[in-house]
Write a structure and sequence with these properties.
Layout (H helix, E strand, L loop, with lengths): L5 E8 L2 E8 L11 H4 L15 H10 L8 E4 L6 H8 L3 E6 L4 H11 L6 E4 L12 E7 L7 H12 E11 L5 H9 L4 E6 L13 E7 L8
Parallel strand pairs: 3-4, 3-6, 4-5, 6-7
Antiparallel strand pairs: 1-2, 7-9, 8-9
Pfam families: Methyltransf_16
GO molecular function: methyltransferase activity
Protein name: Lysine methyltransferase
C-alpha cells in the first residue's frame, strides 16, 4: 500500500498458524489525507497499531482457550486484530475496535490472509460515548493502559458497554497504571484475579507483565 512498507509475520497461537500483515518497522508513517491528525494520533504514535506486541500475543493465546460460548465480545484497541482473528477462527461473536484510520483495513486483510470471514469492526474513540454499540459479556484489550489517563477513560467505557454480568481481560506489560484501573473497576463491582505472566523469552521471575481478569456478577472465575 502507498506511503509505508509492510511485512508478513507467521505466528503460532493456540496450536494454529496465523499470517499477519504488519508494518515493516516502527519508522513507518503515512497520513496524506490527515485522517490520523484529525483523530489525534501523532506521527510518533502512528506506527504503533501496526506492530506485533508481546502483550497482544499473550492476549491472543488466552483467547485461544477462553470460554467464549454464547458471549458477545469486544476487543478494544485491536491494532492488527490478532485476538479478534483467533476469536473469529473459534466462531465467537466478536467485535474489534480501534481509532486508528488504518486498523480496519489491516484487520480485514489479515482475516483474508487466514481464510476467515471479515471481522465486525467499529471505530471507537474511548472518550466518546457510542449508544449504538451496546453491551458485552466479555471485553478484552492488550497494553491499553499505556498512558495515565487511560485507566479513567477505559473504566468509563466499561461502565457504558459491559453487561451487569461481565468479564474483562487485560494484558499489561507492567507500565504502572493497572492499579488505578483496578480501583476504578472495584467501584463498579468487579473483582480481580491478577496473574504475573512471561511476555517474552527474556522475562525472568518475578514477571512484570500481568494478565488481569476482572469479573462482575459471577460466582467463580472461568479458566483461560
Amino acid at each position: 500500500m502507498p506511503g509505508y512498507l509492510t511485512r508478513n509475520i507467521a505466528l503460532r497461537i493456540g496450536g494454529r498458524d496465523y499470517a499477519i500483515r504488519a508494518l515493516s518497522d516502527r519508522q513507518q508513517y503515512a497520513d496524506p489525507q490527515g485522517h490520523a491528525e484529525r483523530a489525534g494520533i501523532s506521527s510518533a504514535l502512528w506506527c504503533l497499531f501496526g506492530q506485533i506486541w508481546p502483550s497482544g500475543q499473550v492476549l491472543a493465546e488466552a483467547m485461544s482457550g477462553f470460554d467464549v460460548a454464547g458471549k458477545r465480545i469486544l476487543e478494544i484497541g485491536c491494532g492488527l486484530g490478532l485476538s479478534s482473528l483467533v476469536l473469529q477462527h473459534r466462531r465467537a461473536d466478536v467485535t474489534a475496535s480501534d481509532h486508528h484510520p488504518l486498523a480496519e483495513s489491516f484487520l480485514q486483510h489479515n482475516a483474508q490472509l487466514n481464510r476467515l470471514p471479515n471481522v465486525t469492526y467499529r471505530d471507537l474513540p474511548w472518550e466518546i460515548p457510542d449508544a449504538r454499540l451496546g453491551r458485552f459479556d466479555l471485553i478484552i484489550g492488550s497494553d491499553v493502559l499505556y498512558e495515565r489517563n487511560h485507566a479513567t477513560l477505559l473504566s468509563a467505557l466499561l461502565q457504558r458497554h459491559a453487561k451487569p454480568r461481565a468479564e474483562v481481560l487485560i494484558t499489561d506489560p507492567g507500565r504502572g497504571n493497572s492499579s488505578v484501573f483496578t480501583r476504578a473497576l472495584a467501584l463498579q463491582g468487579y473483582s480481580v484475579d491478577e496473574q504475573r505472566s512471561r511476555f517474552n523469552e527474556s522475562d525472568n521471575p518475578p514477571f512484570r507483565g500481568r494478565l488481569l481478569k476482572y469479573q462482575r456478577g459471577m460466582a467463580a472465575a472461568n479458566p483461560a
